[in-house]
Design a protein that fits this description.
Elements (H helix, E strand, L loop, with lengths): L1 H14 L5 H25 L5 H13 L3 H25 L8 H15 L17
Helix pairs in contact: 1-4, 2-3, 2-4, 3-4, 3-5, 4-5
């Protein structure tokens, strides 16, 4: 736990090098809200093959907030893949769709969105325009 706390703190300090703390934390907060909105929309849509689109969209919207939003998107995405994906595999006996290949594809969609790439390249045909 101490190692995790140290890593989070160091990445926060490194990410704030040219921004004021207040601005960075505001961007991170808004970016976290963007990530939550994408997650909520994904669950609401419950649309087959839309997972990568919502990953890319959440990361894209968060990163548009600035360095704090990009930092929040990266931390949340990594935590989701490293914690939730493993727990889902454990409790669903490996059929959660979160195997290594799926996790790597999710992370690629996350990086694509965070780097400013268009999330619509992952949009599945037929997904309602609401999303």
């Amino acid at each position: 736990m101490k190692l995790f706390t140290g890593l989070v703190f160091c990445s926060l300090v490194l990410g704030v090098s040219s921004e004021s703390w207040f601005s960075f934390l505001g961007q991170a907060y808004d970016g976290a809200k963007d990530m939550w909105r994408a997650f909520s929309d994904m669950r609401e849509a419950n649309f087959k093959n839309s997972d990568k689109y919502f990953h890319a969209r959440g990361n894209y919207e968060a990163a548009q907030r600035g360095p704090g939003g990009a930092w929040a998107a990266e931390v949340i995405s990594d935590a989701r893949e490293n914690i939730y994906g493993r727990a889902a595999d454990l409790f669903r006996h490996g059929d959660s769709g979160h195997g290594v290949a799926d996790s790597m594809a999710d992370q690629e969609a996350n990086r694509h969105g965070r780097s400013g790439g268009d999330p619509n390249i992952y949009r599945p045909p037929g997904l309602p325009d609401k999303y």
